[in-house]
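re: ur question from earlier - yeah i can do the single chain one, its not a big deal. heres the input i used so u can compare w yours
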Amino acid sequence: MAASKLKISLAANYDPELIPEIAKYPVDEVYGKFPADGISGGRPRYMATPVSPSALRNYVRLLDSHGIAFNYLINGSCMGNREWTGSWQRKIMSLLGRIQDMGIRRLTVSTPFLLELVKKRFPEFRVRVGIYAQVDTPSRAKFWEDLGADSITLESFSINRDFRRLESIRKAVKCDLQLIANHACLPNCPMQSYHQNGFAHASDNSGGLFIDYCFLRCSRKRLEDTSLYIKAGWIRPEDLHAYEELGYTTFKLLERGIPSSELLKRVKAYSERQSPENLAELILSCGFSEPQKKERCWALRNFFRPWQANPLKLKKLLDLARHQGMSFPKPESDIKIDSRQIPADFIDGFRKRDCMMLDCKECGYCEKIARDAVSVSPSFREESLKRFADIENSLATGGLWGV
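and the output i got, formated as tokens:
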């Protein structure tokens, strides 16, 4: 393994058998939260991995014995204005007290008030600002550092390949800066705020039905234009050095709740700076051959809402999820990104490009690489696009609600 200051922040799936394996690599922390703690987070409840208080306590102890910290997420972009009520204040104080008793000393937040609350009432916590705070300029980073942030996750969806801005932000603050290395989100996603607010309210026990329209829409767009798999701001394991040269050494790896073999594959790839033959294995959040652990009766618990939508119509969503391998096992991936077809100097192609100001069609850099590197099973693509169109039509015309 190459000697470096590399630190990895890894998604949790609460598998204790995985811990000794990831401890062989530079994993500094594992991040996660209870499926339902009453405080907004960054993923809807139906995506959460079940874990009890006693299981989390034991998991944190095992991590600690291997020199790995646990970072608890209270990172929702919106608290629904409940933070100004006494009941919410009592709830957050109780939660912080309980996780403190478990030995947890790291938190991630995405709202300034919550950062101030934690720093004043629980100063022993080391607090990271999450990506949903959308820190993408030196002045925004300085704002959070002045407010007391110990670390900041930058808005990786948009600036992972903007080296001038990354350099300016790194020079502006002294706190640790983290980048998400393996996301597949649309570049400069126009749905980002809508999506993260939907996640916040789908994770706070408010009880409303959540349909992930944004994920449906971006999944469809990627199948319609496969160059979007290349345009997403992921970082290849081979290109970590380009960021380390700027002073970035902490990288976050997604996704929570995925199989242990997949998490280990991601840790190994980034630690050894070597992509697998199919780069999609590092960046996709679904389509795994092993099942993902879910709470009992998760589909009924999260989608059977006859007073909100027609359950028979919602079955279309579950059928689509199964077809895509979302929360269901899939024998093999229908999406391939051949890492051998990505140029060795791939990242250098962005050093002098300002992608925020470019018309992609005039540039053509990512499209050319995608033609050689990205392949999607034709039958999977055709069937998927048909299913996406059918569901989007049902949503837009009110078919799910019979209106």
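The mean pLDDT is 92. not sure if urs matches, ping me
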